[in-house]
Amino acid sequence: MSAFSFEATSNTLATAQGSIHYHEAGEGPVLLMIHGSGPGVTGWANFQGNLEVFSEHFRCLIIDLPGYGKSDAVEGDPIGGCVVACLALLDGLNIDKAHLIGNSLGGIVGSHIAASSPDRVGSFVTIGGIGMNIFSPFPGEGLNLLTEFTENPSRERLIQWLHSMVFDPALVTEDMIETRYEQAIEPVTLATSRKLYSKASIGATAAFFRGEHTVQRIAHLASIKAPTLITWGRDDRVSPMDIALVPMRIIPNAELHIFPNCGHWAMIERKAEFENLVKNFLLR
Asked: Does NAD show up as a keyword for this record (predicted)?
């Protein structure tokens, strides 16, 4: 069995909010890797390809957020529940401080951790996720396809959504489709997706962040003290690139890197470049 296989790195932590599944590999400063959302997503699906490289320098923890993968679901606010789960994992492993990498939803979760618990975050890296639409509409193409899947799951709708996530459609393999679909229609996972991406949920989010409530989406970003690297795919059809402009401006110590020919999964689609960029940033 490979030292970086699913089985060899798999662990479970019991907490007051339920069990948290995570993967662990490597030694050194702690790097917590927080996955995004969407049909069939898990921490392993997002970050398995990056684990070997980052574990050369860091003690890597890849979390399954509540209701995803093998972690128990929790009631209430989905974002708040994810923040609690990440901090509970660090507490349960007696970790005082960690670097954070968050993809999409994981970036939003990581931004709230960095803002509310600054002493616990060394550096913060986000792959899309944080910010607000300036020129592009909300919800965009990828989110609309995600909503269509959660409302009426089918293999065809999953394929449409997966293609919206990438610049190069060749990355959407039959193995990815089958693995994602099997996980996506699992009842707990599907229920978790519907909390965020049903038509009612997306409509409520869009209405809330219009007008006087717009600032609430981004207000916490100004409180992030950690050095922050914002990464984005130039061709992201889920979270268009203009979303990055506000966090780049209001996070005090932030820098922005745009990957060309890249969709929503920079850590997969531009794997080597992403790993080199992030590794050098975290090791400064």
From this structure: no
211: left (phi over 0), alpha (psi -120 to 50) or beta: left
Rg (CA), the chain: 17
Tokens read off for 170: 């060749």
- What separation, in Å, do the N-terminal and C-terminal C-alpha atoms of the chain show? 34
pTM above 0.90, yes or no: yes
Q: Which two tokens stand for residue 47?
A: 């970050």
With the C-alpha atoms ordered 230, 236, 237, 238, is the resulting torsion angle positive or negative?
negative
Q: Is 264 a catalytic residue?
A: yes
Query: Which CATH code of 3.30.1330.40, 3.40.50.1820, 1.20.272.10, 3.40.50.920 fits the domain covering 6-136+215-282?
Result: 3.40.50.1820
Alpha helices in 3-131 (DSSP H): 6-9, 43-47, 51-54, 78-92, 105-116
Tell me how far apart the alpha carbons of residues 18 and 53 are, in angstroms, rounded to a whole number. Answer: 30
Chain centroid to CA 133: how far? 18
Residue type for position 60: C
Give CA torsion, residues 35, 204, 235, 141, to 10 deg: 120
pLDDT at residue 161 above 80? yes
- In the set 21, 23, 99, 264, the catalytic residue is 264
Instruction: Write down the mean pLDDT value for the chain.
Output: 94
